[in-house]
Amino acid sequence: METRDDGFERVRREADPLRQAKLAGELMSVYQQRAVELARLRREAINRAAADQGLSFSSIAKELGLTRGRITQIRQTAPPAERAFFGVGPVTVAVPLRAVPGRALPVISSEDTRAADLLTKLLADLAFQVEHFHIAPDGNWQPRGDVAAICGPKSSPVTAQAIASDPALTFEPDDTGRWTIRERDGSRVYESPMDDPAAPRWADVAYVGRLALSDEETIFIVAGVHALGSVGAIDYLARNLPDLYAHVGTQRFSMVVRSEHDGDTVTRSELVCPPRIHDQK
Protein backbone atom coordinates (compact mmCIF):
# COMPACT_ATOMS: atom_id res chain seq x y z
CA MET A 1 0.00 0.00 0.00
CA GLU A 2 1.21 3.51 -0.82
CA THR A 3 2.46 5.39 2.22
CA ARG A 4 2.72 9.10 2.76
CA ASP A 5 4.07 11.25 5.55
CA ASP A 6 0.91 13.19 6.39
CA GLY A 7 1.65 13.76 10.06
CA PHE A 8 0.43 10.40 11.38
CA GLU A 9 3.81 9.31 12.69
CA ARG A 10 4.44 12.76 14.17
CA VAL A 11 1.23 12.39 16.16
CA ARG A 12 2.26 8.93 17.34
CA ARG A 13 5.69 10.18 18.44
CA GLU A 14 4.46 13.32 20.24
CA ALA A 15 5.37 13.04 23.94
CA ASP A 16 3.30 15.89 25.33
CA PRO A 17 -0.24 14.52 25.93
CA LEU A 18 -2.10 17.79 25.33
CA ARG A 19 -0.12 18.50 22.20
CA GLN A 20 -0.71 14.92 21.01
CA ALA A 21 -4.47 15.23 21.61
CA LYS A 22 -4.57 18.50 19.66
CA LEU A 23 -2.56 17.09 16.75
CA ALA A 24 -4.67 13.93 16.69
CA GLY A 25 -7.87 15.96 16.48
CA GLU A 26 -6.50 18.08 13.63
CA LEU A 27 -5.39 15.02 11.68
CA MET A 28 -8.75 13.31 12.24
CA SER A 29 -10.42 16.32 10.60
CA VAL A 30 -8.11 15.97 7.61
CA TYR A 31 -8.84 12.25 7.31
CA GLN A 32 -12.59 12.83 7.58
CA GLN A 33 -12.47 15.40 4.78
CA ARG A 34 -10.39 13.07 2.63
CA ALA A 35 -13.00 10.36 3.13
CA VAL A 36 -15.69 12.75 1.89
CA GLU A 37 -13.56 13.66 -1.13
CA LEU A 38 -12.93 9.98 -1.90
CA ALA A 39 -16.69 9.42 -1.85
CA ARG A 40 -17.09 12.25 -4.36
CA LEU A 41 -14.31 10.85 -6.56
CA ARG A 42 -15.89 7.39 -6.49
CA ARG A 43 -19.25 8.78 -7.53
CA GLU A 44 -17.65 10.72 -10.40
CA ALA A 45 -15.63 7.69 -11.49
CA ILE A 46 -18.77 5.55 -11.63
CA ASN A 47 -20.57 8.21 -13.66
CA ARG A 48 -17.60 8.55 -16.04
CA ALA A 49 -17.41 4.78 -16.51
CA ALA A 50 -21.05 4.81 -17.54
CA ALA A 51 -20.81 7.91 -19.75
CA ASP A 52 -17.38 7.44 -21.34
CA GLN A 53 -17.16 3.65 -21.56
CA GLY A 54 -20.82 2.89 -22.13
CA LEU A 55 -21.02 0.50 -19.18
CA SER A 56 -24.31 -0.26 -17.49
CA PHE A 57 -24.51 0.36 -13.76
CA SER A 58 -25.10 -3.37 -13.29
CA SER A 59 -21.81 -4.07 -15.08
CA ILE A 60 -20.01 -1.46 -13.00
CA ALA A 61 -21.43 -2.99 -9.83
CA LYS A 62 -20.11 -6.40 -10.84
CA GLU A 63 -16.65 -5.01 -11.62
CA LEU A 64 -16.50 -3.27 -8.24
CA GLY A 65 -17.87 -6.19 -6.28
CA LEU A 66 -20.95 -4.23 -5.24
CA THR A 67 -24.68 -4.64 -5.69
CA ARG A 68 -26.68 -2.59 -8.18
CA GLY A 69 -28.51 -1.06 -5.22
CA ARG A 70 -25.24 0.01 -3.60
CA ILE A 71 -24.18 1.75 -6.84
CA THR A 72 -27.48 3.63 -6.84
CA GLN A 73 -26.93 4.61 -3.21
CA ILE A 74 -23.42 5.90 -3.94
CA ARG A 75 -24.67 8.01 -6.84
CA GLN A 76 -27.48 9.47 -4.76
CA THR A 77 -25.66 10.20 -1.51
CA ALA A 78 -22.04 11.08 -2.34
CA PRO A 79 -21.12 14.79 -2.54
CA PRO A 80 -21.65 16.49 -5.91
CA ALA A 81 -18.87 17.12 -8.40
CA GLU A 82 -18.76 20.87 -7.67
CA ARG A 83 -17.51 20.23 -4.13
CA ALA A 84 -14.03 20.06 -5.67
CA PHE A 85 -14.29 23.79 -6.48
CA PHE A 86 -13.27 24.59 -2.90
CA GLY A 87 -10.65 21.83 -2.50
CA VAL A 88 -10.60 18.82 -0.20
CA GLY A 89 -11.07 20.48 3.18
CA PRO A 90 -11.19 21.52 5.88
CA VAL A 91 -11.80 24.98 4.40
CA THR A 92 -10.78 28.13 6.26
CA VAL A 93 -13.03 31.15 5.75
CA ALA A 94 -10.94 34.26 6.41
CA VAL A 95 -12.32 37.77 6.96
CA PRO A 96 -10.48 40.97 7.91
CA LEU A 97 -10.58 42.75 11.22
CA ARG A 98 -10.88 46.51 10.74
CA ALA A 99 -9.48 49.18 13.02
CA VAL A 100 -12.11 51.80 13.88
CA PRO A 101 -11.14 55.21 15.26
CA GLY A 102 -12.28 55.60 18.84
CA ARG A 103 -12.59 51.87 19.48
CA ALA A 104 -10.00 49.91 21.39
CA LEU A 105 -10.58 46.64 19.55
CA PRO A 106 -10.88 45.98 15.81
CA VAL A 107 -14.23 44.90 14.38
CA ILE A 108 -15.60 42.81 11.53
CA SER A 109 -18.04 44.62 9.25
CA SER A 110 -21.63 43.39 9.30
CA GLU A 111 -21.42 42.75 5.56
CA ASP A 112 -18.31 40.56 5.94
CA THR A 113 -20.06 38.64 8.71
CA ARG A 114 -23.09 38.11 6.46
CA ALA A 115 -20.90 36.98 3.56
CA ALA A 116 -18.97 34.59 5.82
CA ASP A 117 -22.22 33.12 7.16
CA LEU A 118 -23.54 32.54 3.63
CA LEU A 119 -20.26 30.97 2.52
CA THR A 120 -20.10 28.78 5.62
CA LYS A 121 -23.60 27.45 4.87
CA LEU A 122 -22.65 26.73 1.26
CA LEU A 123 -19.53 24.87 2.37
CA ALA A 124 -21.41 22.91 5.05
CA ASP A 125 -23.98 21.86 2.45
CA LEU A 126 -21.04 20.44 0.45
CA ALA A 127 -19.93 18.41 3.50
CA PHE A 128 -16.94 20.59 4.35
CA GLN A 129 -15.66 21.18 7.82
CA VAL A 130 -15.30 24.94 8.10
CA GLU A 131 -12.79 26.83 10.20
CA HIS A 132 -12.79 30.60 10.66
CA PHE A 133 -9.85 32.99 10.71
CA HIS A 134 -9.68 36.70 11.43
CA ILE A 135 -7.08 38.59 9.41
CA ALA A 136 -5.24 41.13 11.56
CA PRO A 137 -5.90 44.84 10.87
CA ASP A 138 -2.47 45.19 9.22
CA GLY A 139 -3.56 42.51 6.72
CA ASN A 140 -0.56 40.26 7.21
CA TRP A 141 -1.28 36.53 7.52
CA GLN A 142 -0.19 33.16 6.15
CA PRO A 143 -2.94 31.19 4.35
CA ARG A 144 -2.62 27.43 4.84
CA GLY A 145 -4.54 24.61 3.20
CA ASP A 146 -7.85 25.27 1.47
CA VAL A 147 -8.72 28.92 2.11
CA ALA A 148 -11.59 31.17 1.03
CA ALA A 149 -10.77 34.79 1.83
CA ILE A 150 -13.52 37.40 1.93
CA CYS A 151 -10.98 40.16 1.77
CA GLY A 152 -9.95 42.73 -0.79
CA PRO A 153 -6.55 44.17 -1.69
CA LYS A 154 -7.15 47.27 0.43
CA SER A 155 -7.43 45.15 3.58
CA SER A 156 -4.49 42.77 3.08
CA PRO A 157 -1.18 42.81 1.19
CA VAL A 158 -1.53 39.01 0.91
CA THR A 159 -4.72 39.21 -1.14
CA ALA A 160 -3.35 42.26 -2.99
CA GLN A 161 -0.31 40.26 -4.09
CA ALA A 162 -2.48 37.33 -5.18
CA ILE A 163 -4.77 39.59 -7.22
CA ALA A 164 -1.73 41.27 -8.77
CA SER A 165 -0.88 37.90 -10.35
CA ASP A 166 -4.18 37.93 -12.30
CA PRO A 167 -3.38 38.17 -16.02
CA ALA A 168 -6.88 39.37 -16.95
CA LEU A 169 -8.10 41.81 -14.28
CA THR A 170 -6.75 44.43 -11.89
CA PHE A 171 -8.30 45.68 -8.65
CA GLU A 172 -6.73 49.00 -7.75
CA PRO A 173 -7.62 52.62 -6.94
CA ASP A 174 -7.96 54.97 -9.90
CA ASP A 175 -6.45 58.46 -10.15
CA THR A 176 -9.10 59.83 -7.78
CA GLY A 177 -8.50 57.11 -5.18
CA ARG A 178 -11.72 55.25 -5.98
CA TRP A 179 -11.32 51.48 -6.09
CA THR A 180 -12.32 49.82 -9.37
CA ILE A 181 -11.88 46.50 -11.15
CA ARG A 182 -10.42 46.83 -14.64
CA GLU A 183 -9.66 44.70 -17.65
CA ARG A 184 -5.88 44.67 -18.05
CA ASP A 185 -6.25 45.48 -21.74
CA GLY A 186 -8.14 48.64 -20.82
CA SER A 187 -11.35 47.54 -22.54
CA ARG A 188 -13.66 47.94 -19.55
CA VAL A 189 -13.88 49.32 -16.03
CA TYR A 190 -16.19 47.78 -13.40
CA GLU A 191 -17.23 50.50 -10.96
CA SER A 192 -19.43 50.20 -7.92
CA PRO A 193 -22.86 51.82 -8.31
CA MET A 194 -22.44 52.91 -4.69
CA ASP A 195 -19.72 55.30 -5.89
CA ASP A 196 -21.83 56.97 -8.59
CA PRO A 197 -21.66 60.66 -7.59
CA ALA A 198 -24.84 61.51 -9.49
CA ALA A 199 -27.09 58.67 -8.32
CA PRO A 200 -25.52 56.25 -5.82
CA ARG A 201 -27.42 52.97 -5.57
CA TRP A 202 -27.56 50.08 -3.10
CA ALA A 203 -25.57 47.87 -5.46
CA ASP A 204 -21.95 46.81 -5.85
CA VAL A 205 -19.47 44.79 -7.89
CA ALA A 206 -17.10 42.13 -6.59
CA TYR A 207 -13.93 40.44 -7.74
CA VAL A 208 -14.02 36.63 -7.48
CA GLY A 209 -11.08 34.40 -8.30
CA ARG A 210 -8.86 31.44 -7.56
CA LEU A 211 -5.33 32.79 -7.60
CA ALA A 212 -1.75 31.73 -7.11
CA LEU A 213 -0.05 31.94 -3.74
CA SER A 214 2.91 29.94 -5.01
CA ASP A 215 3.65 27.48 -7.79
CA GLU A 216 1.60 24.82 -5.99
CA GLU A 217 -0.77 26.72 -3.70
CA THR A 218 -3.84 28.76 -4.53
CA ILE A 219 -6.29 30.93 -2.61
CA PHE A 220 -9.96 31.60 -3.37
CA ILE A 221 -10.80 35.29 -3.00
CA VAL A 222 -14.12 37.13 -2.86
CA ALA A 223 -13.70 40.90 -2.67
CA GLY A 224 -16.38 43.50 -3.18
CA VAL A 225 -15.39 47.05 -4.07
CA HIS A 226 -17.40 47.66 -0.92
CA ALA A 227 -18.08 44.93 1.63
CA LEU A 228 -21.67 44.68 0.35
CA GLY A 229 -20.40 43.30 -2.96
CA SER A 230 -18.96 40.24 -1.25
CA VAL A 231 -22.43 39.30 0.00
CA GLY A 232 -23.76 39.50 -3.55
CA ALA A 233 -20.87 37.43 -4.89
CA ILE A 234 -21.51 34.63 -2.39
CA ASP A 235 -25.20 34.71 -3.34
CA TYR A 236 -24.18 34.21 -6.97
CA LEU A 237 -21.87 31.32 -6.06
CA ALA A 238 -24.57 29.58 -4.02
CA ARG A 239 -26.98 29.67 -6.97
CA ASN A 240 -24.55 28.94 -9.80
CA LEU A 241 -21.75 26.78 -8.40
CA PRO A 242 -22.46 23.67 -10.56
CA ASP A 243 -22.28 25.71 -13.77
CA LEU A 244 -19.22 27.64 -12.61
CA TYR A 245 -17.41 24.42 -11.68
CA ALA A 246 -18.30 22.89 -15.03
CA HIS A 247 -16.62 25.87 -16.70
CA VAL A 248 -13.49 26.44 -14.57
CA GLY A 249 -13.06 23.20 -12.63
CA THR A 250 -10.14 23.61 -10.24
CA GLN A 251 -8.16 25.92 -12.54
CA ARG A 252 -7.11 29.44 -11.66
CA PHE A 253 -9.63 32.01 -12.87
CA SER A 254 -11.20 35.38 -12.16
CA MET A 255 -14.55 37.04 -12.83
CA VAL A 256 -16.71 39.98 -11.70
CA VAL A 257 -20.16 39.77 -10.11
CA ARG A 258 -22.61 42.66 -9.87
CA SER A 259 -25.34 42.58 -7.23
CA GLU A 260 -28.32 44.66 -6.11
CA HIS A 261 -29.56 44.76 -2.54
CA ASP A 262 -32.54 45.67 -0.41
CA GLY A 263 -31.09 46.00 3.06
CA ASP A 264 -29.60 42.62 3.99
CA THR A 265 -31.36 40.87 1.10
CA VAL A 266 -29.68 40.28 -2.25
CA THR A 267 -32.33 40.99 -4.86
CA ARG A 268 -30.14 40.20 -7.88
CA SER A 269 -26.66 38.89 -8.57
CA GLU A 270 -25.18 38.32 -12.01
CA LEU A 271 -21.93 38.06 -13.92
CA VAL A 272 -20.73 41.23 -15.61
CA CYS A 273 -17.36 39.71 -16.48
CA PRO A 274 -17.48 35.97 -17.24
CA PRO A 275 -14.88 33.61 -15.76
CA ARG A 276 -11.44 33.99 -17.34
CA ILE A 277 -9.30 30.89 -16.97
CA HIS A 278 -5.68 31.84 -16.33
CA ASP A 279 -2.76 30.42 -18.25
CA GLN A 280 -0.86 28.16 -15.86
CA LYS A 281 2.18 27.29 -17.98
Structural class: alpha/beta
| CATH C-level label of the largest domain | Alpha Beta
Could you tell me the CATH topology label of the largest domain.
Chitobiase, domain 2
Distance between the termini: 33 Å
Proportion of β residues?
15-25%
Tell me the helix content: 25-40%
The H-and-E topology, N to C, reads as: HHHHEHEEHEEEEEHEE
Supply the number of helical segments.
Answer: 7
Strands, total number: 10
What's the arrangement of strands in the largest beta sheet? 2-1-3-8-7-9-10
Mean pLDDT: 92
The CATH superfamily name of the largest domain is: Chitobiase/beta-hexosaminidase domain 2-like
Radius of gyration of CA atoms, rounded to a whole number: 21 Å
Q: How many structural domains are formed by the residues?
A: 2
Backbone shape: globular
Which runs of at least 5 residues are low in confidence (pLDDT < 50)? none
CATH level-two architecture of the largest domain: 2-Layer Sandwich
Largest sheet: 7 strands, mixed
Provide a quick synopsis of the model.
The protein is of the alpha/beta class. It is built from 7 helices and 10 strands. β5 and β6 form a beta hairpin.
SSE diagram, text form:
Layout: H1 8-13, H2 17-53, H3 57-64, H4 68-77, E1 91-96, H5 110-125, E2 130-135, E3 146-150, H6 157-164, E4 169-173, E5 179-183, E6 189-190, E7 203-212, E8 218-224, H7 227-248, E9 253-262, E10 265-277
Parallel strand pairs: 1-2, 1-3, 3-8
Antiparallel strand pairs: 4-5, 5-6, 7-8, 7-9, 9-10
